[in-house]
Amino acid sequence: MAQRRQAEGDPAETADRYRAPALDRGLDILEVLASEVRGLTRAEICEAMGVSASQMYRMLERLIARGYVTRLDGGDRYALTMKLFLVATGHPPQRRLVAQAQPGMDAFALEQRQSVHLAIPERGSAVILAQASAISHWEFCARVGARMDLFNTGSGQTLLAFQDPARLEETLGTWGIANGAERLAPVRDALEAVRAKGYRVGASGQVVGITDLSVPIAGPNGDAVAVLTCAYLGRPGDAPGDAQREAALHSLIRLAESLSLRNPA
What we know:
Mean pLDDT: 84
Largest sheet: 6 strands, antiparallel
Distance between the termini: 59 Å
Helix content: 40-55%
């Protein structure tokens, strides 16, 4: 009993007894990178950890190979990916969002005879998380799991437009985009116009004849956590002018508002 109490009585001694230096070093790298939204160079990681490059090199390469760390723009700056979050949480927020959104998306597709998809920001892209199609013998729809460019798609620009402008570049850093200012420069005016309207309507940059209707889903702080996009197709028999498209847009806005999580004022 005395020996057992002695072994259990000193946590520091127990921790030293079961040390795994390689594992500790890997966890140190993750912890150092977790606090750096713009990432760190290899030299900066070494300096923060107080180790030499040779002590850290292989561990960093293994974290990259396993998908926990990424090289920003393929260079010598490293940042965390979303994998650690996915492993820790099993993605329950996204599952809940899809569970809540899918019935409304299905109803929208049936009522408006248009497809609609739900996209979220992930690792520098807009990723399609869910989709609903109109009941028809033909359709145009986006594939679940597809990645879209943030800067030249309706979903991507809407996600960007509804982030806090004061920290948008920092937000892009957390999404894995290091050259945020440079990428934003050509689209800043367009993003401001989208933010002022509260939604985006524009010709698809990928398919001729499609008009993207994109509406943000707000999180508790007002930033967009997701976006609903209808790839609108005109059909024979539609109401004259843009009345049918406007009806689809307002229906999409109501759906997005019902899914938003803004804190009460």
